[in-house]
Structure formats: C-alpha cells, structure tokens
Design goal:
Blueprint (H helix, E strand, L loop, with lengths): L3 E6 L5 E6 L5 H14 L12 H8 L3 H14 L2 E4 L3 E4 L24 E2 L12 H14 L14 H15 L8 E4 L2 H8 L15 E4 L4 H9 L4 E4 L1 E2 L2 E2 L12 E4 L13 H14 L2 E5 L23 E6 L11 E4 L5 H11 L5 H12 L2 H27 L4 E3 L6 E5 L5 H10 L2 E2 L1 E2 L15 E5 L8 H11 L5
Parallel strand pairs: 5-17, 7-8, 7-11, 11-12, 12-13
Antiparallel strand pairs: 1-2, 3-4, 6-14, 9-10, 13-14, 15-16, 16-19, 18-19
Helix pairs in contact: 1-3, 2-3, 4-10, 5-10, 11-13, 12-13
C-alpha cells in the first residue's frame, strides 16, 4: 500500500493519527499501524477507537477489512471490545519496554513548612466568585472593538476606573489620558528606562537615587537598563531626601513613601514636600512606588506624593499585593510630557496586558468589589499581624517588630550579629524567611542593622499560629 498519513476526526470526538505504510494486504497494514500506535504510546490504554464503519469510510477501506483488523487485535490482547462501550485500547496492551534506569536526581532541600517571606498575598483569599461575576459582566458589555487591535495605553474602561479609584482612595491627581496600563511594577520600570543604555530613546535616564534598603530585583532591572543607582540613607522618618543635592547629578529618585520597603513607616510630611521641591528646582523626577498603600491598620491614610505635584511624580501601582501576582496588571500615572514616549516604548517593546483582564478589573473596581475585597483583606492581615506582635510580646519581648502599622510584613529587629544565625535557625524550624541584609544596597553607607523581614499574609489561616510558634522558637534568646 502507498505510504500515507491519515488524521481522522470521527463522530465520537477523538482524533486518531495513523501511519499506513509498508507492504502487504490492507488488513495487515492497518493491523501493523494500530499495533505500532499502541506500542509507541500514541494510543494510550483506555482510548476509545472509532467505530469500524467510520474508520473504514475515512480510510477508504472495506468495512470487513477494518472489522477483521479490530478482531485480530482483540484476540492478540491489544484491544478490548464490549457491547455498549465500543472498541478500546487494552489496559496492558504492550509489554513494558526496557528502559535505562535514570540516575537519581540531585537531592533538593525540603520545602519549608511555612512561608513567611514578604510581599506575597494570601492566595486562598483571591475573590474567585466576585472576579468571575465581574468578568462575565465586563465581557458581555464590552464593545466589539475591544476584541480587536488595542491601544498601548490600555483599555479606556480600566483607565477611567483607575483614575476615579486612585483619586478617591490614594489622593492621586490624574485623568485617564495620563494613565498607561502595563503588566506590573517591573515592566513599568523597564518601559520608563527603555533605551537608556544607548539602544534607543528613553523616557527617563539615570543616575537614579534609591533608598538604601529595597528590592534587589528592581536594582537589577535598572542596572540591566544601564542605570546607575545611588543609595539614600534611611531613618525613622523615611528616606533622607535632604541628601539628594549631595548625591551627585541624579536625575530622579525612587521612593516607597506610603510604607518604606522593607523597613516600614511612611515618609515624613516635611520630607515629602522636600522631595517635590528638589524635583522642581533640579528638573528631576520622583518615582513613587505605592506598592501596598491600601493596607493600613493603626494609622490614618497616607496620600500619594503625586498629589502634591503631578508634573514632578511618576506614580506606579499594581494589583500584585492587593489581589494577586497572577493578575498581571499595573499602571503608571505620568507627567504629561512623558506620556508619548512611554506609549511609544510600550507599543514596540512590551506584550500588552490581556484585554479581558483589563475589562474585568475595570468592572471589579467600578462595581465596588475591589473596595470590599481590600476591606476584608485589611481585617484578615491585621488579625495575623496582631497574633505575631502578641507572640513576640509574650515570648520574645526583647525582639521589636517595626513597620507594623501598615503593609504585609514586619521587620523583627535583632541583637547585633544575630541575623545570620536567626535565619539559619528559622530554616531548621521549617520557616522560609528573609534577612534584612538581603535588601541592602551594596553601596549603602548607613550603618547596617540586623533583622528578619517577616511576611504575615501567605500562610493559610489554620496554619498561621503554628508558623508564628516556629518562628519565635528560632529567634535569638535575650542577651
């Protein structure tokens, strides 16, 4: 029989891919093709085959030829046939093939029993029902053009919803035309500095002042874009922005003014005003990372610095902490002069965020579900924070927890020289936790402090008490 490839889509809904080749009768070729497909695993045990009449019609063979082939393979044990169930591949149709015994994989450390790393919202708390309802409403109401080529700034529905929400909840001054939707904070940084390494025109260029403690991941993004970062000192009032004039010719400063990451605490009002004044007089820009501005417990709301002067501040936010990092949506509220450059960079460099997710988030915000979710999570995280603080006060009163008035983590201040041993002890207790030194800028000159950065959002509700108990056992004893 002439060699051919046949791809069948028959009435029972299965696709069957057979190679019909070689010499011999049509019956023999079909039997060999089916047997090879089973032996090679292309037809898995339990797979239902097409009725022989359908297969005969699709292959151009006589019905008796296919029926006889099925019967032969049933007799050999390759197939089974039952009334009402059709013809299926037998559960043990082929003898096990001899395979090489793979080398054992390198031993991996056991997964921690409790994850107390920062910045990870409770995955079990994602509002699935409300999100699904919003998705249905948004998709049903969306105009047809929403499913065609889009605007690199993002869907107008989401930009309008964000403008309303940010003005009401964070004191941000913006209209939808100055909001650019992106896939999160890290993509926003890449867009702002795209081309600053000399490969093209960038919206912003370095050097950039950053807080002495912050996410190393963000510093790596900036370094990859050719941006040199200059550390600013920190104290109990936040970043020491008074150092900016002496920091060299920096063109901007990246701040976490609502809740300094990771040491905690808002930027003092006088320093907020001083930062804006520096930007006005120097021609520089402030980049405001409002990473968890909604989560506050024991303090009055702290508005965005952007509200002091929208033309001097790039406001950056996302839903990675408030909803889930799985929802890859963030936003930039830009000074008017930067909008065109960022939109141009986004159109060329970044895969746009899903329109369906944008429409859903817009409906989720506009319907009030986002506010309700934030209130629920604020209560849940506050309960966990209170449990952590109470356990420390009772069992380790020499350990101070700072930054607990807001956010999703606390910093446990440790006696000098004990951070490394405490982190190791936590690992022995099955706790995933991070040392404060991991967030320190490599060129920071301010004195280093020992501490553990402890998140209280990730462990499940029923397991959080056990996680706190294990953590307290790992802390160094009173000096």
């Amino acid at each position: 029989m002439r060699e051919s490839w046949v791809n069948l889509a028959e009435r029972i809904g299965s696709d069957l891919h057979l190679e019909l080749s070689g010499t011999g009768s049509r019956r023999a070729v079909l039997i060999r093709a089916l047997r090879d497909a089973v032996r090679e695993g292309r037809l898995a045990p339990g797979t239902r085959l097409p009725p022989y009449r359908s297969l005969a019609a699709d292959l151009g063979l006589a019905r008796n030829t296919v029926a006889d082939a099925y019967a032969e393979l049933v007799a050999e044990g390759w197939l089974t046939a039952r009334q009402g169930s059709g013809t299926r591949v037998a559960e043990r149709a082929a003898p096990p093939r001899r395979t090489r015994v793979p080398k054992p994989a390198p031993a991996r450390p056991a997964a921690p029993a409790h994850d107390l790393r920062q910045g990870r919202p409770d995955p079990a708390a994602f509002p699935r029902t409300a999100w699904l309802t919003a998705a249905r409403r948004a998709i049903a109401a969306a105009p047809n053009e929403a499913f065609g080529p889009g605007d690199p700034r993002g869907r107008t529905e989401l930009r309008q919803a964000l403008a309303d929400y940010l003005a009401r909840a964070r004191g941000v001054r913006a209209d939808p035309g100055r909001i650019v939707v992106c896939s999160g904070f890290a993509p926003a940084l890449r867009l702002l500095f795209a081309g600053s390494d000399g490969a093209g025109g960038a919206a912003l260029r370095g050097p950039l002042a950053v807080e002495s403690y912050g996410l190393g991941f963000h510093r790596e993004i900036l370094r990859g874009a050719g941006v040199r970062t200059v550390p600013l000192g920190l104290d109990e009032q936040g970043a020491r922005v008074g150092e900016l004039p002496e920091a060299g010719r920096v063109r901007g400063v990246l701040l976490t003014p609502a809740h300094q990451f990771p040491t905690g605490g808002p930027l003092h009002p006088t320093r907020r005003a001083a930062a804006v004044d520096w930007a006005r007089t120097s021609g520089g820009l402030l980049l405001e990372d409002d990473y968890d501005g909604e989560f506050r417990y024991d303090r009055e709301p702290v508005g965005a610095v952007q509200g002091l002067d929208p033309e001097q501040v790039v406001y950056l936010g996302s839903v990675s902490k408030s909803l889930s990092p799985a929802v890859r949506l963030g936003w930039m509220v830009l000074p008017e002069r930067l909008v065109d450059g960022v939109v141009a960079a986004k159109g060329e460099r970044e895969a746009w965020a899903s329109v369906l997710d944008q429409l859903t988030l817009a409906e989720f915000i506009a319907s009030g579900q986002y506010d309700r979710h934030i209130r629920r999570m604020r209560q849940r995280y506050r309960r966990r924070r209170d449990l952590l603080v109470s356990a420390l006060a009772e069992r380790a009163p020499h350990i101070t927890a700072t930054g607990v008035a807001a956010g999703l983590h606390a910093v446990l201040r440790l006696p000098p020289g004990t951070e490394a041993s405490a982190a190791k002890a936590a690992a022995w207790q099955g706790i995933a936790v991070e040392g404060l030194a991991e967030f320190r800028h490599p060129q920071a000159t301010m004195p280093a402090a020992d501490g553990l950065v402890v998140g209280y959002s990730t462990p499940a509700e029923h397991a959080y008490g056990a996680a706190v108990d294990a953590l307290v056992r790992a802390l160094p004893p009173r000096p």
